[in-house]
Amino acid sequence: MRAFATLLDRLSSTASRNAKLVLIRDHLADQPDPDRGWALASLTGALSFKTAKPAMIRAAVESRVDAQLFRLSRDYVGDMAETVALIWPARHGANREPELSEVIDALNTAKRGEVQGLLEGWLDALDADGRWALLKLVTGGLRVGVSARLAWQAAADYGGVTVADIQEVWHAQEPPYADLFAWLDGKAERPSADAHGRFRPVMLAHPLDEDVDLKKLDPFAYAAEWKWDGIRVQAVSEGGVRRLYSRAGEDISNAFPDVLDQLTYEGVIDGELLVMREAGQAAAFGDLQQRLNRKVVDPKLIAASPAAIRAYDLLAADGEDLRGLAFTERRARLEAFVAATGSPRIDLSPLQPFDSWEDLAKLRADPPEGEPAIAEGLMLKRLDSVYQAGRPKGLWFKWKRDPHLVDAVLMYAQRGSGKRSSFYSDFTFGVWVEDATGAHVLTPVGKAYFGFTDEELKQLDKFVRDHTTDRFGPVRAVRADREFGLVLEVAFEGLQRSKRHKSGVAMRFPRISRIRWDKPSKEADELATLEAMLD
Amino acid sequence: MTRSALKPEALLRPTPKGLWCEPGDFYIDPPWPVDRAVITHGHADHARAGHGSVLATPETLAIMAERYGQDFAGHTQAVAYGETASVGGVDVGLVPAGHVLGSAQAVLTHRGLRIVASGDYKRRRDPTCARFEPVRGDVFITEATFGLPVFRHPPDAQEIGRLLASVRQFPERAHLVGAYALGKAQRVIRLVREAGYDETIYVHGALERLNRLYERFGVALGPLAPATGSKADFAGKIIVAPPSAIADRWSRRFPDPVTAFASGWMRVRARVRQRGVELPLILSDHADWDELTDTLTELSPGEVWITHGRDDALCRWAELNGLKARALHLVGYEDEDDEEIAADPAEGG
Q: CB–CB of A334/A313 below 8 Å?
């Protein structure tokens, strides 16, 4: 438990992806089986303990600590689990610290009434970091900034294989993954990937560089279709096992029972998850976003925003692996397959006919179904491409629509973390709006922390330091008025109404596309300009 | 302690200018210039320049002279640990407080009444200063910087072990340790030495004079060098700098630094995030909750006065444990680590 606690503690304060990979990789290298397997299961979100409840922990601490001292502490620390971990009174002569695997074995076999006693015994035996790790482990949701994909990448780094290799076999393995580690250690063959309902690593596209790629590519060698603006999913239904995966291979089935119900086929569809209130009518991304990252499924929300799949590709059908076939062959199979399902909530992403790149450029400027918000651009897929994991060169391209642009004024900057901890690198910007007295004031409309080069970051950082007007912890306000301010050209993908933001709008994927050192602040855009762009 | 006819407030009481001893006409750690001051230790909020006369340990006087110049006070009087001086008829003894080099508790004895003003203190061993000595009195005046039961500092060796493990795990990165310039920095360096690390440790210019002062008083810090050179020179190295420098432009000279911060505040994750610290090291020169409450239990004074910090929680503990406690609400004292990250301290060094 101590090594696992140390790992979580380090991960929780580490921002750099590379450093996180090193921390996890070294943990997998240093820890014995089965502890390292349980750690990997925990990091990938594969564990849940239904018998351990936060209320038990609260009851336990209340019986040991003065209520007033606990309240003062909780107010200071802010987080309940962390307060308990820190305040739990040490008990001399407690049992030795449990190993991670002991904790998991005991929780998996304990009867409901035994869990409280187990937890209290472990809390007595562990130190503050150990108690924190235990509470995170048993109450679910580590929240240490590690995605399943990052953990797989670390496992791949450890074993000297690719992340696609891990993904291919992952869903056929069970924690604590003895076969997987035996393979990564070179002591056994790659374990079987042959399990119903497993994830197939997805094929991804390169962004199209219009100036370079279009000159080289033969339009007759490619198919085109819309890049729908939902989330890419893999919908698997095999031998009675139905699962919905994100493109990173995370199992999101629980959030979409309405979609799972539709998977009446035997096969694997690669497609886009969209909200469709009527068959064939895709809604904007914002509607889907409301259904993501929810712990509890809300039937009202499902009824209001039912999800559906728009199919791009077919990876397996009736037990046959189709990934080795060319795109045109898979496409023909897909069209027949989707027709055979007969579900109104699974439709085809239609191919868009074109004869030249000029044709396609016109189509791209002319959004599908008259709705600019529901497609991000076009996809180009080589007709002879087999379905290959990762981002192979020259086969698939994404040709996104040009982003929206707005000129905004820099208002606040926050210090970054990790490599950027000495830089003001997170920028809040605003546009002009008239207040009640008719004066022009700035209202914040978004925050961006990329889009600029390292050199530009230095210049921005200097600007912030030279023009600070106020400080709030790690945040600085900079001078921004009608006479003086720094104009940032901000690019973003879409704009939605938002009640959480004072300006009433929220940008999707904002980034700084240019720094307008030349532009006077009063010439930045008005809120009305943004409102006209609402999806 | 036998009860004296003298009320404690007649010997010492809080005033807007600090803790004032009326019969001796002197202040303890006054935040403003006064005629006569007794200084417990050299941290800037306790030891200010411009007093008429200062009574302190030789180490504290040396620290003040290093920081403010030789003429920091009109007159100085050195009192070594265990010695007692008479100030305006009040006996003032200085006893080790274990906080930083030279830190002392001021023991005031007058007409059978004894008040122990502990200043800032800690109970655990610190290789850079003398260990706290418990002195019983009618009144014990304590700080409560970490006076919440969530603050329990782990063993020093464990925290230094985490630093050295990280140096081994990330040999291509520099390890930049923020540590307050007086006391914490030298303690970190000394603890790293005790853990067997004998490579050169690089130090920010703001630490150099105090490092030399510590060495003059017999605290060996091993090979040190200024943190100047090319980026590649610092891969796998440890650099110690004042806390404000670790998030400053100064830090950009190091290769992808792991920013560490040695402070008791690092026990709480919100503080770690707020500071953007990657490797928090829980090392404090102040007593943690257990040290505070164990000290009060051990000394069992007639009254506990709390100068600054979380007096609400410590008063509650005292109430639960049958001790008479009161908060003095002294202003002007802050924890040395708790300064806002300074804007842009002088570059260089």
A: yes
Tokens of B108: 């005031």
Same domain? A394 vs A275: yes
To the nearest whole Å, the CA of A279 is away from the closest chain B CA by 47
User: Does A12 sit within 8 Å of B269, measured CB to CB?
Assistant: yes
Q: Does A87 touch chain B (CB under 8 A)?
A: yes
Distances in Å between the Cα of A396 and the Cα atoms of A13, A215, A303, B16, B311 are 37, 16, 35, 75, 65
Q: Is residue A151 part of a domain?
A: no
> What residues does A307 pair with on adjacent strands?
A275
Condensed to tens digits (0 to 9), the pLDDT of residues A383-394 reads 999 999 888 889
Q: Are A383 and A416 in the same domain?
A: no
The strand ranges marked E within B137-221 are 139-144, 175-178, 201-203
Residue B347 pLDDT: 26
Confirm or reject CATH 3.40.50 for domain B156-281, answering yes or no: yes
Residue A80 CA neighbour count, 13 Å, CB half:
12
Specify the CATH number for the domain of residue A392. Answer: 3.30.470.30
Residue B343 has pLDDT above 60, yes or no: no
Q: Rounded to the nearest 5 degrees, what angle is found at the Cα of B47, between the Cα atoms of B46 and B53?
A: 125
Over chain A, what is the mean pLDDT? 91
Residue of A nearest to B265 (CA): A77
**A254-312 pLDDT, tens digit each:** 899 999 999 999 999 999 999 999 888 888 887 888 888 776 788 999 999 999 999 99
Residues 355-384, chain A: which have Cβ within 8 Å of B? none
The CATH code of the domain that includes A438 is 2.40.50.140
- B-chain CB neighbours of A86 within 8 Å are 149-152, 267-268
Domain holding A308, by residue range, is: 206-400
- Number of domains into which chain A is organized: 3
In the structure encoding, which two tokens stand for residue B37, read together?
């001051």
Tokens in use for B35?
Answer: 């005629």
How far does A82 lie from chain B, in Å, by closest CA?
A: 8
The pTM score is 0.81
Q: Which residues contact A322 (CB under 8 A, 6 or more apart)?
A: A314, A315, A316, A329, A330, A333, A387
* Residue B39 contacts residue B19 (beta carbons within 8 Å): no
Quick: pLDDT tens for A191-229.
988 788 889 989 999 999 888 898 899 999 999 999 998
Domain ranges of chain B: 8-150+285-338, 156-281
Rounded to whole angstroms, how far apart are CA atoms B135 and B115?
10
CATH number of the structural domain B8-150+285-338: 3.60.15.10
Q: Alpha carbon of B155 to those of A127, B191, B283: distances in Å?
A: 11, 11, 8
Interface with chain A: mutation pick from B254, B265, B269, B279, highest number of A CBs within 10 Å = B269
> How confident is the model over A131-147, as pLDDT tens digits?
999 999 988 778 888 99
- pLDDT grade, residue B336 (50/70/90)? low
Same domain, A367 and A275: yes
CA A17 to each of CA A21, A144, A150, A419: distance values in angstroms, whole numbers, following the listed order: 6, 12, 8, 11
- Say whether both A213 and A344 belong to one domain: yes
B320 touches A at CB < 8 Å = yes
> Within this chain, do residues A320 and A454 fall inside the same structural domain, yes or no?
no
